[in-house]
User: What shape does this take?
Amino acid sequence: MSKVLEIKDLRYKKNHKVILDKVNLSLDNGKIVGLLGANGAGKTTLMRLIVGLNSKTSGQITVAGVESKEAIKSCVSTTYSLKSAFKDVFANSWLERTRIKDIVKFYQTVYPDFSLDKYQEMADFLALDSRQNLKNLSTGETEKLTIALTLARQVQLYLLDEPLNGIDIMTRKKIIKSIIQWKNEEATMIISSHYVKEIAALLDDVIIIKDQTIYEVDSVEEIQNKYHLGVEAYYEQVYGGGSADE
Amino acid sequence: MEYIDSIPIYLQIKDILYRKIISNEYELGSQLPSVRQLAVQFSANTNTVQKSLKEMMEEKVIIPQRGKGNFVTEDEQIINKLRSHIVNEMFDATYDKLHSLNMNDQEIIDSFKNYVKQRDEGDE
Assistant: This one.
């Protein structure tokens, strides 16, 4: 298996404060990986560093063998693109009269790897109405749209930051099913979520971030075999009773 | 899909599929859904489902056919063995619990017969 993501000695400081340090990570193709960590642990920061939205202080990030920020952008699909698109391109007055189909067209223009067929299948499954106005979307609908747009790009690495936040359980289940249905077999996906229990069956591996670095990378199965614990219980133990390793 | 947290998910999925096979929901010789379909159905990772299927192949309960997918074996003996294995597993826990109540084998058998009889009457 080839590596889709490689991070070496990554360090990130903000206002003289170390946010992430000594981060080393190597991910294979074809995996779904959970990124776990308390609020403020640096999950979002790590994802933003991978895609180049934040600039690393030092270290090396390689995605599918490429290192330049521009090259990385073309092989990573993130849920941030939409959120920044909302802010920049579709600022205020635009948002007023922009429909889902407009932003789909925008994605088609901006990303040559965008598959309209795939988007349409997902939109049908998630019951997204393309005529709907963006400003009228509920939290759940916005998240569904974000997932459909992010997964419709055919890339090697997907970064989903909290795709289940603020969403009712039925919609969470639908989003999980659509991830399973539409993720390319070869692609790798990193998902951060606080719904550890709900996504456990979706994951191959988990990355736990703690104390400004990657505390552990392990497969879900290893955790169950080694500790006889579910991922959630293990994660709580790492954070709660974690003085043994210090 | 509700899983038990501490047990590997591929084992739990294998167990569910085995029960579907011995209950004839998936008939002898019939084709199983694709890995992706099963993964969606079980809300689980495709690699996990693949692992369940791999063990089922090793245990000869399902047979892969190139380019077609996976089929339930037509060998009734294998299914019967699987059934008695699963039934035994279910009895194991109960038998141990009854034994711990200081019941001997005959008392356990008698009380089980009695239980079945009462249930049958209750159904009518």
The first strand of chain B starts at residue 62 and ends at 65. The mean pLDDT of chain B is 93. The two ends of chain B are 34 Å apart (CA to CA).
